[in-house]
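Example 3.
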Amino acid sequence: MSRVMLYVVYQKYNEAMHGLALSIMELLAIGLGVDRMLYREFFEDAVSVMRTNLYPTCQEPNLSLGTGPHCDSNALTILHQDLVGGLDVFVDNKWQKVRPIPGALVINIGGVFAALSNGIYRSSLHRAVVNSHKERRSSVFFMCPRADKLVKLAEELVPTSEGAQESFRISHGQIYSKLL
Ligand SMILES: O=C(O)CCC(=O)C(=O)O
Ligand SMILES: [Fe+2]
């Protein structure tokens, strides 16, 4: 595939994922009981990042990791994995496999949305492991608010104690600088 073709495919995939992420934002808003359009509008101008991961086979998979344990720090992640398997999520105090399902996408809440929802939604701990017989690929779309956006709780989610609202006002850039 030529570079131009690759770029067009990338752009189209990115646009489709952006649209899907905005629809998921509406569902999350409904779940939280806030204005349905709140997060869709907040993330309309999101600066998203896409990454493709390639995990080669490994002779000693037990001694190695593809992607180490982490919680995504962006707002929402949409992951497509091939059918090899290797994504694990930490639930009930143990690592559990996220079994690949043909045509299915994995949606992960990131740290920014966990903050926006006042911790009602959590960013899950996950990792990717390797194996000795088949290489694996995944492509990941990370939705992030623009770095200068103020990450602020919806009025309905603000704790009522005095001064609490101010303490929740933080820009996405500040969140990143705290994480780095
Ligand atoms: O490749 C995977 O299944 C996981 C990748 C991942 O968690 C990430 O890129 O943040
Ligand atoms: Fe991740």
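The beta strands are 49-55, 67-70, 76-81, 87-91, 94-97, 106-109, 126-128, 136-143, 150-151, 170-171. The chain has one domain: 3-179.
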